[in-house]
Amino acid sequence: MSALLVRHEANRLGRDIAVGDIHGHFTRLRAALDRARFDPAVDRLFSVGDLVDRGPESEQVLDWLALPWFHAVRGNHEDIAIRYAKGNPVDQTSYIANGGAWFVTQPLARRPVYAEAFARLPLAREIETPAGPVGIVHADSPVRDWSRLVWSLRLWRAARDRAMWSRDRLQGENADGVAGLRALVVGHTPVEDPVVLGNVHHIDTGGWMQDGRFTLLDLATLQAIPPMG
């Protein structure tokens, strides 16, 4: 079983940057990183998950997961792929409609390769910054106090589902925040511009959509990095 939470020490050489949902658009992501002058020798990139589906380059995900500077959490689209590969009930029509055709059409022997890589992804990451720890999950924290996260994720499937699937905080405009963190960074629900509710930053600005863009959030400053040039 993969770790539920992975902790990262402070990056003392470069920047730590978070990015919203990628959904199989790695060429677009690379262009955004180039504009931000991302330096893989010293910078680290943290993904809020949903690496695959919808875009044309989902099969590149294994190459990205092998990069030493790229760190992702598991999103609901990775969760679906894991369940589909295991033969668990998945509405195939809905899966295909939401971008899963690339996975459904994979050879049977190939599906487990992706599913096992996705299953190794943690549900949460915690990055130390000069101003305090920043957490990352795909959709939302299932707990109000980050110190209870691992306990909650270990005990309850509902907590794991909330981490990967919930839209309640954004839909309810809940600004209560999550104790024990400087900030929590999430994706999952597309927004036109980044939204901050309490200390929760929603950064899926639709970089995978025709009229969207990738938001790159500097975890030291909690400010979006504007395109350069």
From TrEMBL:
Give the matching SUPFAM superfamilies.
Answer: Metallo-dependent phosphatases
Q: Name one GO molecular function term.
A: phosphatase activity
Q: Which domain of life is it from?
A: Bacteria
All copies of the Serine/threonine specific protein phosphatases domain together span: 73-78
InterPro entries on file: Ap4A_hydrolase, Calcineurin-like_PHP, Metallo-depent_PP-like, Ser/Thr-sp_prot-phosphatase
Q: Name one GO biological process term.
A: RNA decapping
Q: Which GO terms describe its cellular component?
A: cytoplasm
Listed Pfam families: Metallophos (PF00149)
* Gene3D superfamilies to which the protein is assigned, alphabetical: 3.60.21.10
Protein name per UniProt? Serine/threonine protein phosphatase 1
Which lineage do the record's taxonomy fields give for this organism? Bacteria, Pseudomonadati, Pseudomonadota, Betaproteobacteria, Burkholderiales
